[in-house]
């Protein structure tokens, strides 16, 4: 029953609310109690009535929860009730209790049912013994484990249920529990199926308020499988720890006093021996060390022994088959109470592969740094060559009637173009050249190049191909790939001055994380491998480590620039690929190019027909160039081509001219400008003002990623420096011809 009981300042009690269950609990309807609160108090047994009023008074005085249990007389039948309520002060100064009345018999039945639900759900055997060691309660797990109904246990003694032998085993724990001491122990029990089971037991004494032990709560958990699993797990962990410690790292121990040395099986394997092949000793160990490193080993051990410090050293060993490996050794020293070293123990690990990877990474970082340097040099050099080539080109035209001058100019032009070719190779090495990747069928390309290679290499070189089946297409710049293969073929020919065999092979190859080629920097994925091999003289190790460095060459002066292999390296890396080279003196060389498999279906575009000549008379070009000499050449070249040229030394001046309503047909701008604005940014702003304005970019170099990010077509809208006047004229004619088809040329006057 739910109720609201009020004690008014006048001193009387009144119920503000009584739930309908009042009739069920108390035998009178709620209205009668609402009329007169004393009728509720009159229901309590006479002996308990004052106790209830005292509890109410105490709750009111301290504003503490009311909790009372006592007898009620309900229609002549005794019933035990519980009253629980929370008090609070009313606005009129009185006290109000929000509470409930419950039948203890019903509540206890519910509590017992709930308790049984809980205990039956637990996967442990639960039993309750009274002080006479008779079973008063067992849960479902107990019944199921012992395969006996609860009735066979309840009321019977422990001796009758478990037997004398089992009782004798647990007697010390039972006696301690009856003294009020909690007990926890393991015990073996024979299951009804005849098998021995290990159980973990808790005996918890049931003690009343006076300290008297009323009984024992026994909890038993069958831990047989758990203990077996724990033992197996412990053994597995120990095995795993041993495997982790010695699978790739051998351990050793040196008793300094006796000189005895112990090696694990892995140490023998690292040194190239079968486990236990000989009795390890310090002298035998030193014999396995590379002769050049033995003195270092002895000095390191001595220093550690006398300095009271542990050590870690790398050194080389020579296996019985002559193979040289690099190992890393770590050692710790145990000392006596007086500080004398008595034992040294440690590990040894074969780090040959790790050191090779580290060296390759260092080489890659060095090549990247050199690439950045050479790229910057090539950019500046191209600006200089742009002025030289451009002005030589203009002079050749102007002095066409002077043969002697023409010869000198042509020689100068040839030298300048060789310089331009060199900067192109530098840009290729630094991976900053503008590539035009398209879908390339590798086998088809190799077959098409075979005839060219035959003519180029000469009759003394036999060319063989070994093309894989169903070789994937790749996405690469075909011209640069042909140049790379031709470069490798020419290098191979030069390595075989008396003739020899050149082999070109192709193969599909997929690399996972763990099986990349020697250089682990390659990204896992699908690649096409192109291998170019020769049976020439090969290279010494000290030469092999430098072959990709720009300007490094072993050829005679004037026979090579030292940019061939760097150009190949840069092209492949820029294409997302990878290069490996293997060579031994007297055994030839193999260079392998790994280029990523194509992920799209683009094929090489067909050659475009020459664009129609545009009506150039009166066309005005705005030239934006921050290099004064290059700016002047561009103006002169445009004038020679029949265009009207307006020049600006940077983006601010160009925008000022455009804002002044200068009529312009095309913006010809360098990509890299000063004043904080690039040519791309200038073009965007100019086309925002004039959406129909055509643009042609030029640069000493510009990375393809930058071009792609700007949405620029490098084949149509970018002119690389240095360029000749005729090349500039063709590109302008192609761009401006697109307008002449649909509209007449604009007026040359200023708007």
TrEMBL record:
One Gene Ontology cellular component: plasma membrane
Coiled-coil boundaries: none
Name of this protein: histidine kinase
Enzyme Commission identifier(s): 2.7.13.3
Subcellular localization, as worded in the UniProt entry: Cell inner membrane
Enzyme class: transferase
Organism whose genome encodes this protein: Hypericibacter adhaerens
Domain Histidine kinase per the UniProt entry, residue ranges: 376-599
Domain PAC: 183-235, 311-363
Keyword Isomerase: no
Keywords, in A-Z order: Cell inner membrane, Cell membrane, Membrane, Nucleotide-binding, Phosphoprotein, Repeat, Transferase, Transmembrane, Transmembrane helix
Response regulatory domain mapped to chain residues: 620-736
A Pfam cross-reference name: PAS_3
Reaction equations catalysed: ATP + protein L-histidine = ADP + protein N-phospho-L-histidine
Annotated positions of the 4-aspartylphosphate modification: 670
Domain of life per record: Bacteria
Molecular function GO labels: nucleotide binding; phosphorelay sensor kinase activity
Membrane topology: Multi-pass membrane protein
Principal location class: membrane
NCBIfam families: sensory_box
Keyword Protease on entry: no
């Amino acid at each position: 029953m739910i109720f609201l009981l009020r004690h008014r300042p006048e001193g009387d009690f009144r119920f503000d609310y009584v739930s309908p269950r009042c009739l069920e609990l108390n035998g009178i309807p709620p209205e009668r109690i609402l009329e007169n609160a004393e009728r509720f108090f009159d229901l309590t047994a006479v002996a308990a009535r004052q106790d209830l009023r005292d509890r109410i008074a105490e709750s009111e005085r301290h504003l503490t929860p009311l909790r009372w249990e006592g007898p009620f007389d309900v229609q002549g039948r005794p019933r035990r009730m519980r009253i629980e309520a929370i008090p609070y002060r009313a606005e009129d100064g009185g006290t109000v209790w929000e509470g409930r009345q419950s039948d203890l018999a019903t509540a206890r039945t519910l509590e017992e049912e709930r308790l049984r639900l809980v205990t039956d759900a637990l996967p442990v055997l639960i039993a309750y013994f009274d002080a006479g060691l008779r079973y008063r309660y067992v849960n479902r797990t107990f019944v199921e484990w012992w395969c006996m109904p609860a009735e066979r246990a309840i009321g019977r003694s422990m001796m009758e249920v478990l037997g004398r032998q089992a009782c004798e085993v647990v007697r010390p724990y039972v006696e301690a529990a009856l003294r009020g001491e909690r007990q926890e122990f393991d015990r073996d029990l024979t299951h009804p199926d005849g098998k021995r089971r290990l159980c973990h037991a808790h005996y918890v004494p049931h003690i009343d308020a006076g300290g008297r032990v009323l009984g024992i709560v026994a909890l038993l958990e069958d831990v047989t499988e758990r203990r077996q699993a724990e033992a197996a797990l412990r053994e597995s962990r120990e095995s795993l720890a041993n495997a982790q410690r010695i699978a790739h790292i051998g351990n050793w121990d040196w008793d300094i006093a006796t000189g005895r040395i112990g090696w694990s099986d892995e140490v023998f394997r690292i040194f190239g021996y079968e486990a236990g092949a000989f009795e390890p000793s310090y002298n035998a160990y030193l014999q396995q060390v590379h002769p050049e490193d033995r003195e270092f080993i002895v000095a390191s051990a001595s220093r550690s022994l006398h300095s009271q410090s542990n050590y870690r050293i790398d050194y080389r060993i020579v296996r019985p088959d002559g193979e040289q490996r690099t190992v890393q050794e770590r050692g710790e020293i145990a000392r006596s109470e007086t500080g004398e070293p008595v034992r040294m123990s440690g590990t040894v690990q074969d780090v040959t592969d790790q050191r090779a990877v580290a060296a390759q990474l260092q080489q890659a970082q060095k090549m990247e740094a050199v690439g950045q340097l050479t790229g910057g040099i090539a950019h500046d050099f191209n600006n200089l060559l742009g002025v030289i080539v451009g002005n030589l080109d203009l002079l050749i035209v102007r002095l066409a009637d002077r043969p002697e001058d023409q010869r000198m100019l042509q020689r100068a032009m040839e030298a300048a173009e060789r310089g331009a070719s060199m900067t192109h190779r530098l840009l290729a090495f630094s991976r900053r050249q503008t590539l035009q990747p398209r879908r390339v069928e590798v086998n088809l390309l190799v077959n098409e190049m075979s005839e060219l290679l035959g003519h180029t290499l000469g009759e003394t070189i036999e060319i063989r191909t070994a093309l894989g089946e169903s070789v994937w297409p790749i996405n690469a710049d075909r011209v640069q790939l042909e140049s790379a293969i031709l470069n490798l073929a020419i290098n191979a020919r030069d390595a075989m001055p008396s003739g020899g065999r050149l082999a070109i092979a192709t193969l599909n190859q997929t690399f996972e994380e763990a099986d990349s080629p020697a250089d682990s920097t390659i990204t896992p994925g699908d690649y096409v491998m192109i291998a170019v091999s020769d049976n020439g003289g090969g290279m010494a190790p000290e030469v092999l480590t430098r072959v990709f460095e720009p300007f490094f060459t072993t050829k005679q002066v004037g026979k090579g620039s030292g940019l061939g292999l760097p150009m190949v390296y840069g092209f492949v890396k820029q294409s997302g690929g990878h290069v490996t080279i293997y060579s031994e003196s007297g055994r030839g060389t193999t260079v392998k190019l790994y280029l990523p498999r194509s992920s799209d279906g683009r094929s090489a575009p067909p050659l475009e027909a020459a664009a129609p000549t545009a009506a150039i008379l009166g066309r005005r070009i705005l030239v934006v160039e921050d290099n004064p000499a290059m700016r002047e050449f561009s103006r002169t070249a445009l004038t020679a081509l029949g265009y009207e040229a307006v020049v600006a030394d940077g983006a601010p001046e160009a925008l000022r001219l455009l804002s002044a309503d200068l009529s312009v047909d095309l913006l010809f701008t360098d990509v890299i400008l000063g004043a904080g604005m690039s040519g791309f940014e200038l073009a965007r702003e100019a086309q925002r003002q004039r959406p129909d304005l055509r643009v042609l970019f030029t640069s000493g170099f510009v990375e393809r990623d930058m071009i792609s990010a700007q949405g620029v077509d490098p084949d149509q809208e970018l002119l690389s420096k240095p360029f000749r006047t005729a090349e500039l004229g063709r590109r302008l004619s192609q761009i401006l011809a697109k307008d002449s088809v649909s509209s007449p040329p604009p007026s040359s006057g200023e708007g």
